[in-house]
Amino acid sequence: MLCGLDIDGVLCDLGPSVAGRIADRFGVSSHPSTWRSYDLRLLRLGVPEDRFSAFLDETFNDPDLYRTAPLCAGVVPALQALANAGWSLVGITARPAHLAGATRAWMARHGLPVGEIHHTAVGTKSAVARRLGVAATIEDNPTEAELLADVCESWLLDRPYNLSAPVVRARRLESWDDAVGRLSQLRLFA
Prior knowledge:
By secondary structure, the protein is an alpha/beta fold. It is built from eight helices and six strands, in the order βααααβαβαβαββα. 41% of the residues lie in helices and 15% in strands.
């Protein structure tokens, strides 16, 4: 069975690096645990919207952001447990295609058992999941998780920025331990 994994916010923790860049550029201190919106453009940091939006575009297009980012807590043992339970893991990310090299290098450096990585536009992950025949996905974007629920078992990994977002068809995961437990059951009864 195939499990599609988002990368940023699910496998890769970009929050501290982005917060550091915000502080360096704008002199504004913030912490990812206080962010209450998946869309960082909606953060109220007292920075002019146009400058902040351009900064975010620049930041998320910079391969260095991804090369140096740490893993999200619990990822390595969770992915190993899922692979041991018989899941084949693929990445489905909204990172631009020009970041494919940095993404693949990051995965290799951390030894993650993720096979293919598919880069696609925001809002189109469900089309990729359908084409691949994915049985389940783990995502941190609530909108994307709801779209994926049309195609497969869709799981939204709880993060501070998505806790207030309503989910109707997707289901929430509290942690990577929760993910392993639920997906192992799915695999067992497949």
